[in-house]
Design goal:
Shape: globular
Number of strands: 9
Oligomer: single chain
Number of domains: 1
CATH class: Alpha Beta
Length: about 150
């Protein structure tokens, strides 16, 4: 069996700042399964590496037609099929960068760490194949608002 949805919701809520943001997260998010099966850090690294080497070079960002939400949806479906585990979510929120901000979609992944044997949520930016845990990477800051899991 996997991790009960209540624990997964709690973990994602830990990534959301502020009372009202947490409340809106709970209202806007959608969790489809009762149990979730995490991937290991090694499995995640292998999946993201394969994504970067085989699929990402063939994908072209096209505004409105194939943009961030499409990258995140495609990565979620592909990675779930590849892993055989429902560890992959679509994250929705804002991204802040030098000179501005915008709405964005990326992926969240339920991971069990090899060393500590603890559960955590890691993020994947499907457009660049980067894995990160903090909400900031390469000058971009991600602010989680909701997930589709």
């Amino acid at each position: 069996m996997g991790i009960h949805v209540s624990k997964v919701v709690e973990m994602f809520l830990g990534k959301v700042e502020g009372f009202w943001s947490k409340l809106f997260f709970a209202v806007k998010s959608w969790f489809f399964d009762e149990y979730y099966v995490p991937v290991s850090e090694g499995e995640l690294t292998d999946i993201v590496t394969k994504w970067k080497q085989t699929l990402l070079p063939k994908l072209v960002y096209t505004p409105e037609t194939f943009d961030c939400d499409d990258f995140a949806s495609y990565f979620k479906a592909w990675a779930t099929k590849k892993a055989g585990k429902n560890a992959f979510a679509i994250c929705l929120g804002e991204v802040f960068f030098k000179g501005g901000k915008g709405y964005h979609a990326w992926n969240g992944v339920l991971v069990v760490s090899a060393k500590e044997k603890e559960l955590k949520i890691l993020y994947v930016e499907p457009q660049t194949a980067e894995i990160f845990e903090k909400t900031s990477v390469d000058g971009w800051t991600y602010k989680l608002k909701a997930v589709v899991y």
